[in-house]
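Try this one yourself first.
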């Protein structure tokens, strides 16, 4: 059930961000730029100026922060990939189908790739002379990075939520198993001691 909910939430996030907002943003500003280039009367200079102003306020002045966030995302994705290799048997992830697990890994790889590209692009963005291209591409990359993070985070939160709900149950179960093992070892030691005493009596 958790996997299905995670898939639905992930699909919804991707649908809204990558399949609606992302192409909508791209079409709006790209078409406006083309209209301004070929027929200035049909394009909106206000819309393009808004894009530049927003870039200055949100991105240009916070370039270091954005690069840091992207680098942190890369670290998180790499950590989760390593965690997937040591999933416990009673974890929800252990019950995911091969298809669901592949989807989760796919989300991680896409998210990590988008974050890597943002880090790299932030280093060369200022070298791009064509201002519209610099601004437009940066916005698209940020939308991609944050939408990938949202989808991945939504899926992971639902998966781990189920694990956390069963945390006390798992702890109690492990405690009982540990006590049971202690009892077995105690019984075994007692049995071995008795056997040793019997052997000594026979020798005497």
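Now uncover the answer:
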């Amino acid at each position: 059930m958790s996997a299905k909910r995670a898939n639905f939430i992930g699909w919804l996030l991707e649908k809204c961000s990558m399949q609606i907002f992302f192409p909508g943003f791209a079409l709006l500003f790209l078409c406006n730029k083309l209209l301004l280039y070929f027929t200035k009367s049909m394009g909106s200079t206000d819309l393009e100026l808004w894009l530049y102003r927003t870039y200055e306020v949100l991105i240009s002045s916070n370039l270091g922060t954005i690069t840091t966030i992207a680098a942190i995302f890369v670290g998180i994705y790499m950590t989760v990939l390593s965690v997937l290799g040591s999933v416990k048997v009673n974890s929800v992830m252990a019950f995911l189908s091969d298809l669901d697990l592949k989807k989760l890994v796919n989300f991680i790889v896409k998210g990590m790739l988008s974050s890597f590209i943002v880090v790299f692009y932030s280093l060369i963005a200022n070298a791009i002379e064509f201002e519209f291209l610099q601004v437009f591409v940066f916005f698209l990359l940020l939308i991609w990075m944050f939408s990938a993070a949202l989808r991945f985070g939504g899926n992971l939160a639902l998966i781990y939520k189920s694990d956390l709900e069963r945390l006390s149950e798992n702890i109690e179960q492990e405690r009982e198993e540990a006590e049971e093992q202690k009892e077995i070892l105690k019984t075994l030691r007692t049995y071995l001691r008795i056997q040793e005493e019997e052997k000594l009596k026979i020798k005497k």
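Discussion: The helical segments are 2-38, 45-59, 63-84, 98-124, 131-165, 167-203. The mean pLDDT is 79.
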